[in-house]
Amino acid sequence: MARITICKIALITALVAALGGCGALRSLGGGADEPSASVNNPNIPSNIETNTDNTIWSIFNRKTSDNTIAVNKYLWSASLEVLSFLPVQSVDPFTGVIVTGYGTPPGGGRAYRATVLVDDPALDARSLNVALQTRGGRAVSKATARAVEDAILSRARELRIADNKF
């Protein structure tokens, strides 16, 4: 009987200490009640505005936000066409990521794998990021990666011209 009582007392003490620690942070100047001088200084880069209503229960009340990236449809389609010899492993048009498996280009003897990121709605070279690697895990030469990017950009321009009937 005494053993159960000691366990209950220890558990209650631990809970009170844990909950008391939450309030202790505010009394030490870390809470929103007493902002320190550095918090009000906008010249310190570590001062980031945060939501002051964060509690343990706020993680259950989070609302999902729509954080999608606008993807250029011509770059997206051109990437899939130019790299059509590679098997597609995953595609996410909302974030602009295409991940392929290993495949050998027509007339080539080496297998490649590609990861493509289209991260801007503009039909621009800065909107396209292509990472190629060989089956050995090594990155391909810059010239090879540049040639693939150029092929994708050229095809994207052709698709845009055909779409607009210039």
Automatic annotation (TrEMBL):
Q: Which domain of life is it from?
A: Bacteria
The region annotated as signal peptide is 1-32
State if Signal is listed as a keyword: yes
Which keywords annotate this record? Signal
**Matching InterPro entries:** DUF3576
Under Pfam families, the record lists: DUF3576
Q: Indicate what this protein is called per its UniProt record.
A: DUF3576 domain-containing protein
Organism in which the protein naturally occurs: Sulfitobacter pacificus
